[in-house]
Design brief:
Number of strands: 20
Strand content: 15-25%
Shape: rod-shaped
Strand order of the largest sheet: 7-6-11-10-9-8
Helix content: 40-55%
Radius of gyration: 59 Å
Number of helices: 13
Oligomer: single chain
Largest sheet: 6 strands, antiparallel
Distance between the termini: 119 Å
Structural class: alpha/beta
């Protein structure tokens, strides 16, 4: 028989209480290359087998204290030793012992005296069977392990398929949700891929364009969707389209455009967009949101028209005040002309006319006419609109307005004071009439609309005059020109009792007034001129039983 194992790797346990038999078997087996361990009783055999399980046990039946049957029974109860093949050895040859040996789990039976060839044949046979048994067990274990691995892999694969299906369903659900959300948004959302083909076109965008979403390339966007520049007349070129700009990586923030689809209302939109970039920096495409500002534009146009009307009303009111000022300024020269005309008649009657008399009277008449003409020119220049911002001198502009109102205000017992308190200001020596209206050098220069600035000053001074009249006292309007934090500042203070607390926060709103008469647009227009037209600040507060208006302008 061919041995399917290496004897040097085989461990045998011999259990026999007869030294001669034990020695004979050990010699025989060791000569064949087996590793052999002896045990002279059952207790030692159980310990040796449990400590280091052998490949085969040869067990004597007749032993004191514990016979071979008991030893075999215990071996089969122990998990570590139950699979070890046991060959029983006995001098007896009765059939009953052989039957018992097999009942207790033995695999074979050898009788004494030994037949050496028989012993070797039986040992080799059962070791071969043991090796085959181990090999089969290993194969079965390996197969079972492979089956378990395959089953686990199949379960994992099934789980992955289930997860994938769930992810696909969730993705589809999320896509439907996202589409529903985008279609509920009033702003238009449009996106394209990196090649410039449209990939997203929400409901609002379709309404804006009056066309269904189509996967057009960027070359066709401008001509297909009727896009115009803010003037609503000039067709957009491809390079002007916000989505194309975003696709090129340009900043797209609040770009205004007009959409005029055929047969649909014209819409004005502002677009904001961004380039779409993944985590690795690769361009994925671009997206743009479009907000409809058509109603806002209409409201702005209506507001501009309203402001123009307010400006016109304000100018008409200011013109009325100016006409009153001119009336006061013309009264004196007209009286002088009347007196001189009467004097010429009397001189003629009494024969006092001569060249010297005529020359003096003509000179006086021309001086009065020149003064009146200059007054009209000042009036016309005051209301001449400025077309563009220019540098102008604040000091002279304020003084011009004061001088236009001076005679009218003095007649109703209102005095003026004009002072310059900024560093380096040198006050000129006052001379003649109206000396309290001082001038300083150097003057403060600002960039803006000079005549509109004068109108703002005029409105504030008229407001101060009305407050002083209602307060029924001697009036004083103090004007200080200074500098604060690098800005030119004009502070106008009156002693007219101040602004009522309930309208202090709304004093610059249109049609808000504390007077019994008046439209309440003068201060509103001053606010518009100073802040909207010239980029400055105008604010008011109460101080020392009067109102203080402060104007700040960049120099």
């Amino acid at each position: 028989m061919t041995i399917a194992y290496n004897p040097h790797e085989i461990n045998l346990l011999l259990v026999d209480d007869t030294p001669s038999s034990l020695k004979t078997l050990m010699s025989l087996l060791m000569e064949s290359g087996y590793q052999v361990r002896p045990a002279v009783n059952g207790e030692l055999a159980l310990k040796a087998a449990s400590l280091r399980p052998p490949d085969l046990i040869m067990l004597d039946i007749r032993m004191p204290e514990m016979d071979g049957f008991e030893v075999c029974r215990r071996l089969k109860e122990n998990e570590r030793t139950r699979e070890i093949p046991v060959i029983f050895i006995s001098a007896l040859g009765e059939v009953e012992d052989k039957v018992r040996a097999f009942e207790y789990g033995g695999v074979d039976y050898i009788t004494k005296p030994f037949q050496l060839k028989e012993v070797m044949a039986r040992v080799e046979t059962h070791l071969s069977l043991r090796c085959l048994q181990k090999s089969l067990k290993e194969s079965n274990d390996r197969l079972r392990h492979e089956i378990e691995n395959r089953k686990r892999i199949e379960e994992q694969l099934q789980e992955q398929i289930t997860n994938k299906n769930r992810v696909v369903k969730d993705l589809e659900k999320n896509q439907n949700f996202l589409k529903a959300v985008l279609d509920c948004i009033e702003d238009g959302i449009v996106a394209c891929d990196q090649e410039g083909k449209l990939t997203l076109f929400n409901r609002a965008t379709r309404i804006f364009h009056g066309l269904p979403a189509e996967p057009l390339h960027s070359e066709k966007w401008a001509e297909h969707y009727d896009l115009y520049l803010p003037d609503g007349k000039t067709l957009m070129q491809k390079e002007d389209v916000p989505l194309f700009k975003a696709l090129q990586g340009e900043d797209v923030t609040n770009i205004e455009m007009v959409i005029a689809p055929e047969g649909k209302p014209v819409c004005t939109l502002i677009a904001t967009g961004r380039t779409l970039i993944d985590k690795k920096g690769n361009k994925l495409g671009a997206v743009v949101s479009m907000h409809d500002i058509t109603r806002r534009k209409e409201a702005e146009d209506a507001l501009k028209l309203k402001e123009q009307l307010l400006i016109q009303q304000s100018k008409m009111a200011a013109m009325g005040e100016m006409i009153g000022a001119i009336t006061h300024q013309w009264k004196q020269p007209l009286n002088s002309l009347s007196v001189m005309a009467q004097d010429i008649k009397d001189a003629y009657v009494y024969g006092e006319l001569n060249d010297d008399y005529i020359n003096k009277r003509v000179k006086n008449i021309l001086n009065q006419v020149c003064f009146m003409s200059q007054t009209i020119d000042d009036f016309r220049n005051f209301f001449k609109p400025d077309k563009k911002m220019i540098p102008f001198r604040i000091n002279s502009s304020v003084k011009d307005v004061i001088l236009l109102l001076y005679d009218q205000f003095r007649k109703i017992d209102i005095d003026f004071q004009l002072n310059c308190t900024y560093e380096g200001a040198i006050k000129k020596q006052p001379t003649g009439k109206k000396a309290e209206i001082c001038t300083c050098e150097p003057e403060l220069d600002v960039m803006g609309f000079q005549n509109e600035f004068k109108q703002a000053i005029l409105n504030i001074l008229i407001n101060a005059k009305d407050a002083i009249i209602e307060n029924r006292g001697k009036g004083l309007i103090s004007i200080e020109i200074t500098m604060m934090n690098g800005k030119a500042v004009v502070m106008i203070k009156d002693n007219g009792g101040g602004i009522p607390h309930e309208i202090l926060d709304r004093i610059f709103d249109p049609y808000v007034t504390s007077k019994d008469k008046g439209a309440g647009i003068g201060l509103y227009m001053s606010k518009i001129i100073i802040e909207n037209s010239m980029g400055g600040k105008l604010y008011a507060k109460n101080k020392d039983k009067g109102a203080l208006f402060t104007i700040e302008l960049d120099m």
